[in-house]
Amino acid sequence: MSTYTSSLDHLPCLRSAVVIPNLSLGLSLASPHLSPDQLDAFMRRMLVSRISRRVLAEHHIALSDSVVRNHATSKEEGHVGIIYTGLNVEKSVQRCIALLRQLTHDSDDPGSNNYKFRWPQVVVEGHIGTQFAYIREHLESELLSSDLTYR
Fold it and tell me: DSSP characters for 76-142?
């Protein structure tokens, strides 16, 4: 791995735990001096800029790692860098469902059998075979952070 790639790997923009609290602190300090619309526009610009830098850095690191391993495209995994070229939405949804169920199962208190969480049935409808190029982690983090609603 090159010195440049190694230095990218240690950038603060790749560590949300440090950046987001500092950004929130700056926003709260600026709030008496700016209107809510200005604060909202500032926060939106900062978050988009931060996400863009992080994605570019992560993609460069992943591509550099694959060059070091001597294959720029992973055919068996279907991705180039961090971009999955044949991302299947249904598989991502199913992976998120399995993860949430596993996390719920792992966090159950073994001494307490009084309450059992009952998962709703998740139905994936539409063009379930659709594949497109996207960053799988971004799609799945959006799926995991959104509310599950069911009928």
Answer: TTTEETTEEEEEEHHHHHHHHHHHHHHHHHHHS-TT--S----PPPP---S-TT-EEEE-HHHHHHH
